[in-house]
Amino acid sequence: MFKRNIEKELTRWVNDRYRKPLVLRGARQVGKTTVIKNFSAQFENFLSVNLEKSAAVQLFESTDNVRELLPQLFLYCGVTRREGKTLLFIDEIQNSIHTVALLRYFYEELPEIYVVAAGSLLETLLDRHISLPVGRVQYMALQPCSFVEFLNATGENRFVEPLLSTSLPAAFHNELMQQFNTYSLIGGMPEVVARYAAEKDILALSEVYNELLNAYKSDVEKYAQNNTQASVIRYILDEGWAFAGETISLGGFGGSPYKARETGEAFRTLNKAMLLELVYPVTSTIMPIVSDLKKSPKLFWLDAGLVNYSAKIQKEYILSADLLDTWRGKAAEQIVAQELKTLSFDVGEKRNFWVRNKRGSNAEVDFVYVFDGLVVPIEVKSGHNAHLKSLHQFMNETPHHIAVRVWSGNFSVDDVKTIAGKSFRLINLPIYMMAALPEVLKKYI
Fold it and tell me: Residue 99 CB: number of other CB atoms within 10 A?
């Protein structure tokens, strides 16, 4: 049991005068149920109902009157009502379409009750078999643990405040790099982090990885709409981990016999389940940026630990001297992509990279991050500033003067000039400091 960053966002939701019932979304096993149970300590009354139980489904489907339903829920949960706030948590809500529809009535007729809903397979059923009440609910996304959450879980929370404020003394740099390498190796799945925090034994985590992977594979029949799609999804879940951080082709993906349409549908289904994301390039350096779906995407999975275990590159991690050199640099891109995802709790948050829209050009920047209306380029690379040619080309085409290089060196800011003569500030951000990116940009923009 360790605190998750989303609890601060949940507290803001509680204090929002325009609060609506909350649908907590995220991949299976990212800790949604545990987060809400921990968060419930702030309430005088906590009602937790799991709709995998037929009696619970029967109770919710017995009425449309939520005021009449509430005392029955206290009775069902065996909770004596006390004065104060009540949190109702409806888990596995996808098992009752009627209960999904009731969320609007909680909003309209019982707004004093704090309602959170979640479901392990909710994502794949949305818009197919389930439609959430438009304008009557709000959403929040939960990702695997960030590095900051890993530090909290492993008792190294003394580093968190100076890390987030970029006031960490250089003397601790090597220690933080070692901590981040461990985090990158094992990943951020809550059960993995908790097991590692308790035992500090990486080899003992194999059992947990296997359980997680088998759980995802066992869900295939529920994800897939037909037998062909089930076969493609199984193939991606078996072989796709080895392509993390790579630009992929949908047709014949990974040497498979599947066509682009079949593979694309399977990837979209797994994307909806929040197990992976196909990250598309943009060609603009100013807002608005639009994903170019005609170009090949990069594949990023929900968790680096699962990638490392499934792709069998754990040994390379342990033997590598620099994370940015591990697995041809793809290991660093995967974990940076993962950390970028944890900077927001918005369900629709997308990641993008940049390619130059010029015939014959192969210029590419690893990520772009929208901040304060600016499109900020992010390169994941060590080495001399002059070697960041694609970053320089990006800066030549954008009106602002800030770029970020994520690397394994200390935090610093360089004044740089492109060959074309444009001056800009290059923020050299240690890879373990990704959580501080918004604060750093706020300071220098």
Answer: 20
